[in-house]
Amino acid sequence: MAEGKTMGIFQLSSPGMTHYLKKLQPQSIFDIMAMVALYRPGPMNFIPEFIARRHNPSRIKFFDSRLKEILKNSYGIITYQDDVLLTAIAVAGYDWLDADKFRKAIGKKIPAEMQKQKQKFIKGCIKNGMSKEKAQELFKMI
Q1: How far is Cα 141 from Cα 24, in angstroms, rounded to an integer?
Q2: pLDDT tens for the chain, residues 1 to 142
């Protein structure tokens, strides 16, 4: 895969994915899983930074210290739906049920529900010690 030999491999054989895999030089199944998760509209913007952090650990940063444990395997980048759930719980004070509603609203891009969740998420982040500006930035990343 690091050589771009991905023809016929489900979810990995597109020219764009092959390009990124060659840059990433995957070393484990976890690198491949992350690329599959990131290779979607929206998260795709984070692929170059993911690759840069993978190759240069000094670039790894965590948006908030509470996310370090959640995002350590993805080099500080929100990559998986589980990352969204756990971020909402850890930073915005969501319970599991509300975190799943948040994940669904984001994943299915339901405008009215996303707007409700945005307000709730930002309010929760502020209540848990984050500035409004930083909370808005985190929501945008998600």
Answers
A1: 22
A2: 899 999 999 999 999 999 999 999 999 999 999 999 999 988 899 999 999 999 999 999 999 999 999 999 999 999 999 999 999 999 999 999 999 999 888 888 888 888 999 999 999 999 999 999 999 999 999 9
12, 62, 101 from 18: Cα distances, Å: 6, 28, 34
Both 34 and 73 in one domain: the answer is no
* Residues across the chain: 142
CA distance 121 to 1: 38
Domain count, the chain: 2
